[in-house]
Every structure is written in structure tokens, then in C-alpha cells.
Design brief:
Elements lengths: L3 H17 L14 E11 L13 E9 L5 E5 L15
Length: 92
């Protein structure tokens, strides 16, 4: 589960990214403007083959943004919004 500090940091990173594109966040389904962040991360594994599933290996970690009006879910890659944890985090 993400704590409030982690959520705030992710919201700040997303805000930075949306400001760069000069766009306001709006739900593509209902045009709602209120969102919440999922309480954890998604980890989308990359597959080399469409007929089998490999566990482990490369993946794209994302955070989910949920429209509080209709429930539409969008995922945003942590690497693109500069929100991946640094390697030295967690080694304390």
C-alpha cells in the first residue's frame, strides 16, 4: 500500500508532466476532473511471445489514476514521470 507521502510525490510528478504538455487532466470517458491514485503499483510484464506467458524478466512499472466519477483507470509509466525508486532506496 502506498502511504500519503508516496501518493503526494506521485501526484506532484504527474502534475509536472501534465504541465509540460499544457493540458489539464480530464477523464476521456466522462470528462470528469477528479481522480484518485491507486493504493499500489501495477507491474506489466513484457512478453516475447503471444502464445505463452513468461514470469519474471523485463516489465513496465506503472501507477493507476482512477476517475472518481466513472471509475475509468489509466496507467502511467513510472520511468517516464521520473518516479522510479532509486537503487539505493530501501538499502538502509
Amino acid at each position: 500500500m502506498l502511504n500519503e507521502k508516496q501518493k503526494k510525490e506521485l501526484i506532484d510528478k504527474l502534475d509536472e508532466r501534465f504541465k509540460l504538455s499544457n493540458r489539464l487532466l480530464q477523464c476521456p470517458m466522462c470528462t470528469g476532473k477528479n481522480f484518485s491514485i491507486a493504493d499500489g503499483y501495477f507491474n506489466n510484464p513484457l512478453q516475447n511471445n503471444l502464445t505463452s506467458v513468461s514470469i519474471g524478466g523485463p516489465s513496465i512499472p506503472t501507477i493507476g489514476i482512477v476517475c472518481t466519477n466513472c471509475g475509468f483507470l489509466s496507467q502511467h509509466a513510472l520511468g517516464i514521470i521520473n518516479a522510479l525508486p532509486h537503487e539505493d532506496e530501501g538499502k538502509k
